[in-house]
Write a structure and sequence with these properties.
By secondary structure, this protein is of the alpha/beta class. It has one domain: NAD(P)-binding Rossmann-like Domain (Rossmann fold), CATH 3.40.50. α3 links the parallel β4 and β5. α3 runs parallel beside α5. 45% of the residues are buried. The mean pLDDT is 92.
């Protein structure tokens, strides 16, 4: 498949590029600074853009089977970036009639797991309060996805870790895995790539965790 990855220099974005290349896909990595992309490959195209102009991004998404985005706030000071940048990507995709989009959100944005323990409920409340602005941004991003004409999927992980790929994790379409507290960025990328052709995830949020 021909894929485009936004946020390709971030933790999940790099994994998306690396794993997609390893799987034999052709990948366009959209970056602001090519020097920060520590991934190479014969089927990799590096596309430099600052994401402020959807017209500029049209060439990066045109004719692609899917677009994957690791864009999002890395801290509270970045709140608002997910909605703004994802909106630019959406406009470029809609202009080129590219439909499949997979993005990274966060577990607390979706519904609580069935049978959630008191401990996990308390932890969710604390984290949601501390990162209130970040989660507000991600909810607004998901609302914009829902208003779009794309076949989107929002992947909602819990706390992210910099650990190797395992390929073993749980997913819940429209919910979240019970007692799911951690997941490696590499496994989030693996899950996103596996969902590209999974019709059950289209226009849905998907919780993913160990």
């Amino acid at each position: 498949m021909n894929l485009t990855v936004f946020g390709a220099t971030g933790g999940i974005g790099r994994e998306l590029v690396r794993q997609a290349l390893d799987a034999g896909h052709r990948v366009t990595a959209v970056v602001r600074d090519p020097a920060r992309l520590q991934v190479t490959g014969d089927t990799l195209e590096v596309f430099t853009a600052d994401l402020s102009d959807p017209g500029r991004l049209r060439a990066a998404v045109s004719g692609r089977a899917a677009v994957l985005s690791g864009l999002g706030p890395r801290s509270r000071k970045d709140a608002g970036i997910a909605t703004r940048l994802t909106g630019t990507v959406l406009r470029a995709m809609e202009a080129e009639d590219v439909r499949r989009l997979l993005v990274v959100s966060a577990g607390p944005v979706g519904p609580a797991p069935e049978g959630e323990s008191a401990l996990d409920r308390g932890m969710r409340g604390v984290v949601s309060a501390v990162l209130k602005d970040v989660y507000t941004d991600l909810r607004e991003m998901e609302a914009e996805l829902a208003r779009s004409g794309t076949d989107w999927t929002s992947v909602r992980p819990p706390r992210l870790q910099n650990k190797p790929l395992t390929g073993h994790y749980r997913t819940v379409v429209g919910g979240f895995p019970r007692n799911g507290r951690f997941i490696a960025r590499a496994d989030v990328a693996h899950a996103m790539l596996s969902m590209i052709t999974d019709e059950t995830t289209v226009r849905r949020g998907v919780g993913v965790a160990y």
